[in-house]
Amino acid sequence: MKLQIKRWIAQIIFLISANLGALGLKTGFCYPFFYCHSCPAAASACPLRAIEIGVFRGNWNWRFIFYPVLIIGFVGVIFGRAVCGWACPIGLLQRVTGVVPRYLKKKFPSIKKLGKSKIDRYLRYIKYFVFIGLVVGTTIWIGFMFTDLCPVGFLVGTIPISILHPGEYVPNEFFYVALAVFILFLVLIFTVERGWCRYFCPVGAMLAPFNKISLVHISVDKSKCVNCNICSDICPMGIDVPNMNRDPECILCGKCVESCPENLIKLEKRYKT
Amino acid sequence: MNKMLTVQITLLVLIAGALGGMLLYTDVYDDIKSTIVDITCFSCIKMDPVTRIDFTFKTVDNQNHPGFILENLLEGPVFLAFREDVCGGCDKMEPIIQKIFNTYFEKEDFVYETINYSGTPVVFYHISLDHASDEMIEPFFVYDKDQRSGVPMFVMITLGDNKGQIQPYYATAYSTLGLEKNSKREALMREIIKQGIEYYNQNQEGYNYTV
After folding, report:
1. Domain residues for A149?
2. Distance from CA of A40 to the nearest CA of B (A)
3. Model pLDDT for residues B88-147, shown as the tens digit of each residue
4. Beta carbon pairs, A and B, within 8 Å
């Protein structure tokens, strides 16, 4: 079976698993990916919310900090950011919406520059600032900020609840700012392929360093590379694949593995020299 | 075995051990479930439930009224204020509740006292879902009328005439009551309490409960 079909199956299975709360299965685990417990069907907790509660206004609750970090660490050491490419429901959403920027790139060269510009590599650091600043920092010194504005909470929590309970809820003071953030989120994922994963996802920021040591990783035999650049063109994260060397941005989707005409890129399941 | 594999396996064992230890020897699994998964996070959905003064006899899933509530109703109407330690809406509503009942408490405190509210004794409970006993948390699930499963939640329990029988009659308010201004929140909360007291005074004589 082709890798990309396996990935579709995995993503759909994880989407269903994340929403087993609809059948009454509510657990005390944190998701190792980005999904919100405010979704009426959610089965587990958002790891970011657990961390926020753990650091809220300097009242350190270490269990709520270590628990999601260890869950993400455990998954990260084995799979790295494959979680983003194979399990995350928001990754699945961006896989679907990714056809739009891919189409736009062909039609409008200026769009193509969006994901390839020189500042792109610097923009990718934003997600670390989002995690450290918005998820942790503001929560320590001010109070909840990230979850008040989170576009994923808006997508899977606010919208379904508004539909299921029409007229029973009223917007709070953060609603319209969060709506604006959500609209920007939509614009982003429809103009830059995997734009949320690349620039803003705080869970992606937590998982990214694990790519350097994960058991599962992508390896490239650069010595035989013919520099056709097909792999880099097809990469949804816009990585320079032949030179990536366990790039923290790689989501191990395997598109480069399947596209390499020389069969030089491999999805390795353990460390090889 | 090369160095990288050693690092990978060591990290995996350490993390798995720490995670397993947390799951086995701490209550973190239950705490995450009860604090995050089972509770609707109003700040995450960026909305507050609309609060209507809507007294009812029907409890969630027709559960029985907790014994201590029935007992307290002999003395006066009962007001329950539920919160969690980490809860922005609770922090906003707490000063209003303290002002209305002319009392003071910290967020983790369990409070049970009879307060003279404009000449009527009201049995006041402040219950932290993070610290209170299971018995005290039980009413949170019994009186979650609109099944919002979120905090803060306030319940005014009084007495009503249900087809000739005097029974507990309650109204539930959620979060910041769907109102922006503290003055409006306070006014609505006082109106709920006022109506509860009126119902209680009308039906008190017909209430029978044997401890």
Report:
1. 3-215
2. 9
3. 889 999 999 999 999 999 998 999 999 999 899 999 999 999 889 999 999 999 999 988
4. 145
- The verdict on A145 touching B (C-beta cutoff 8 Å) is no
Inter-chain CB proximity A172 and B47 less than 8 Å: yes
* Structural domain count, chain B: 2
Residue B117's DSSP bridge partners are: B120
In a domain, B211, yes or no: no
The pTM for the full model equals 0.88
Residue-number span of the structural domain to which B116 is assigned: 42-206
Look at residues A33, A81, A32, A91 and name the one whose alpha carbon lies nearest to residue A251.
A81
pLDDT in tens, A208-236: 999 999 999 999 999 999 999 999 999 99
Q: Residue B104 falls within a domain, yes or no?
A: yes
pLDDT at residue B203 is higher than 90: yes
Say if A158 is an interface residue toward chain B (CB within 8 Å): yes
Residues 80-139, chain A, touching B (beta carbon < 8 A): none
d(CA A157, CA A151): 9
Q: Do B154 and B182 fall into the same domain? A: yes
CA atoms in the 13 A half-sphere facing the CB of B171:
23
Q: Which of A30, A162, A170 sits opposite B32 (nearest CB)?
A: A30
Residue of A nearest to B174 (CA): A169
* Residues A50, B44: Cα–Cα separation, whole Å: 12
What's the structural domain count of chain A?
1
